[in-house]
Automatic annotation (TrEMBL):
GO BP: siderophore-iron import into cell
GO molecular function: transmembrane transporter activity
Membrane topology label: Multi-pass membrane protein
Keywords: Cell membrane, Membrane, Transmembrane, Transmembrane helix, Transport
A cellular component annotation (GO) from this entry: plasma membrane
Entry's localization field: Cell membrane
Chain segments annotated as transmembrane: 31-51, 89-106, 118-138, 150-170, 176-195, 216-243, 263-292, 304-322, 334-353
Protein name: ABC transporter permease
Subcellular location, principal: membrane
Region (Disordered): 1-21
Pfam family membership, one: FecCD
Amino acid sequence: MSGPSSATGLAHSPGSSRGREHLSTLRPTHVLYGVVALVGVSLFSVLLGAADLGWHRVLAEIGAQVTGGISPLSEREAAILWQLRVPRVVLAALVGGALAISGAAFQGVFRNPLAEPYLLGAAAGAGLSVTVMAVTVPHIGLGTTGVTQLAAFGGALGGVMLTWLIGRSAGPETATLVLAGVAVGAFLTAAQTFVQQLRVESLQRVYMWILGDLSTAGWGDVLVVLPTLLPALVVLCACARLLDLLGVGDEEAATLGIRPGRVRALVLAAASLATAAAVSVSGLIGFVGLVVPHLVRLTSGGSYRVIVPLSVMFGASFLVAADTLARTLMAPAELPIGVVTAFTGAPFFAFLLRTNRAR
């Protein structure tokens, strides 16, 4: 008896109401922390690289560009900084933000903090599409070429659409959609393995793409991903409040004027577009969409009005930091960025799960 009564009393207490409002509102300090983290990590990443430009000279170059002063870098060094290093940092931030907000959106739709952006077959579809391209057109490299990007983008969307069609035909429940995603992912992965065996020499190229790669990024890649990514991010941020309403149940949400089915379809479509855009320029990078939203949830509250925008900023910071490690730990060689995110994300996520259980 004491449990329910105390819970009821707590729910109606002024302090508890203020606490819930505190945890469900995006405060200026939240934004400040996210901006400081992203700017700090990005600046640190720009200062480091295989080509030793000197951190003080890079800072002087940035200052010269802002104030119109004299550049301390040679023409070649300036090209390395502004045409290779800076766009790579920007692209890593965009991909990290896209994967993190997509993971948060999937978690909100399926009411499961373990959901992630590849749940509905985007990764398997992209992997199969790129593998087919590598086998049928072997002379095309699997870097950030336009053909690779188009194949990955189309394959990711194709995998999600196939999952959606199968899931909707079996029933309207979200659990059915998840099961359809598992089935489609398994089938497409098996198909990818079969195609790889047709041309074994393509295995290494496909495997390196699957592990994630931002090494050949330039401003062209940033411009390619922006038209798809930015509208998807805007839609997901605008739907953050609706994700909170979905959490109370479909019937309750419907009484508030919300159509749960349409909201889920809109959010999943926007999250899938963001995921496909990210995959098309970076390959398959894991754990970002799983770890970052969960970390934001543990530190800033459970409201998606907080989780969604903060996931963008901290997801961007996380992937920029991971990419910095990928290109500096074994310089001049590079580690696949997916390996770095797995090494850092998997133990960290295990720690978060243990901490959450203790709480």
